[in-house]
UniProtKB/TrEMBL annotation:
One GO-annotated biological process of the protein: response to zinc ion
Origin: domain of life: Bacteria
Lineage: Bacteria, Pseudomonadati, Pseudomonadota, Gammaproteobacteria, Oceanospirillales
Protein name, as recorded: Manganese/zinc/iron transport system permease protein
Listed PANTHER family: ABC-TRANSPORTER METAL-BINDING PROTEIN (PTHR30477), METAL TRANSPORT SYSTEM MEMBRANE PROTEIN CT_070-RELATED (PTHR30477:SF8)
Major localization listed first in the record, in broad terms: membrane
Length: 301
């Protein structure tokens, strides 16, 4: 069975998509609930600066050092954003719009000037190429395992362990940070830890899916799940399920229509969000109209 899997490029591509989607939606759920979903966009672009700086210092294109550098750059993005917002001269969304283009631009300039002959390019960072993940492998127990599967397995495990270990604290600090602080849960520390995991997930996903698909997975499935349930644990589960469904359906539609696999996976997350918006059992347009219709009928009766 394992032999068949490692010889099947289609299964490997869909698995990587599902793993990236699940890992991204886990951290993205809390960003969406906090109203900070665009931080995933800011982080995913600005960590290009961290990737290039780490390469200039160590000449490592991947590995733990790159993850640490990306995580620190993500924290730098948030710190600079909050620093500008705390000045009361601009709102947080404007601060985000200033910080991440600046860091991203500096990263691109450093890339073009000092690393032009290195296999780190802006096209890969933004768009990735999930269709080729099966070509970049490492040997584990005699099997050639895609590098993306290894890196995303690590990140998915870390994200699950973090959320599982601090579920109550994350829930309270997300919905009532003042109470969480009063109870000694240190919501600020939890938030920055969450952002470090977000940054690490983004850089782990770069080679496979790029920044654009990471952003789609981090924001759209949690937003769709939010329209379907009010329970946090179920929202996390639905986000993972929607990400997986988008990966599988996106792959087959991309092959059928001969278009970008990553692009079609991103489109399918939007399709599931639209379906939740229209037909969600509680917040969907159809169910709301039916409730209003029943309410008018009861009032008339």
């Amino acid at each position: 069975m394992l032999e068949a899997f490692f010889n099947n490029a289609e299964l490997q591509i869909m698995l990587v998509g599902a793993m990236v989607g699940t890992a991204s939606s886990i951290v993205g759920t809390f960003l969406v609930l906090r109203g900070n979903s665009m931080l995933s966009d800011a982080i995913s672009h600005s960590i290009v600066f961290g990737i290039v700086v780490v390469w200039l210092l160590t000449h490592h294109q991947s590995g733990p050092v790159q993850l640490i550098g990306a995580a620190l750059t993500g924290l730098l993005t948030v710190f600079l954003t909050e620093l500008l917002a705390s000045s009361k001269r601009m709102k947080q969304d404007a601060a985000i719009g200033l910080v991440f283009p600046a860091l991203f631009s500096i990263g691109v300039l450093l890339l073009n000037v000092y690393a032009n002959d290195v296999h780190i390019d802006t096209h890969t960072v933004l768009l990735g190429e999930i269709g080729f993940v099966w070509l970049d492998t490492v040997e584990i127990l005699g099997y050639h395992v895609p590098q993306a599967v290894v890196s995303m397995t690590i990140m998915l495990t870390l994200n699950l362990l973090f959320v599982g270990a601090f579920f109550k604290e994350l829930k309270l600090s997300t919905f009532d940070p003042a109470l969480a602080k009063a109870l000694g849960f240190a919501p600020g520390v939890l938030f920055y830890a969450l952002l470090m995991l977000t940054s690490s997930t983004a850089v782990a996903a770069f080679d496979a899916v790029g920044a654009v698909l990471f952003i789609a997975f981090a924001i759209v499935p949690p937003a769709a799940a939010y329209l379907l349930t009010d329970r946090l644990w179920l929202m996390l589960a639905l986000g993972a399920l929607i990400s997986t469904a988008a990966s599988v359906s996106g792959y087959y539609l991309a092959v059928r229509w001969d278009v970008s696999i990553g692009g079609m996976m991103a489109v399918m997350t939007g399709v599931f969000l639209l379906l939740a918006f229209i037909a969600g059992p509680r917040y969907g347009i159809i169910s709301q109209r039916l409730r209003r219709h029943r309410a008018r009928g009861l009032a008339a009766g």
